[in-house]
Specification:
It is a single chain. This protein is an all-alpha fold. Helices cover 40% and strands 0% of the residues. It has two helices and no strands. The N and C termini lie far apart (37 Å). The model has no long low-confidence stretch (mean pLDDT 92).
Amino acid sequence: MLHTRSYWLTAPAERRATIDQELRELLATHPELAGRETVELPYRTIVLRARRR
């Protein structure tokens, strides 16, 4: 999901690599995430629709 975010997509390659590495480190070292094969990410999308009359 990270690779679909605009801040990652528009970042220079070096910054994207840094973000990816930091995420890998977090997933490997955080007590609630380390060793897990999957991680649940609560995600909410709010959609607004307007109609011109």
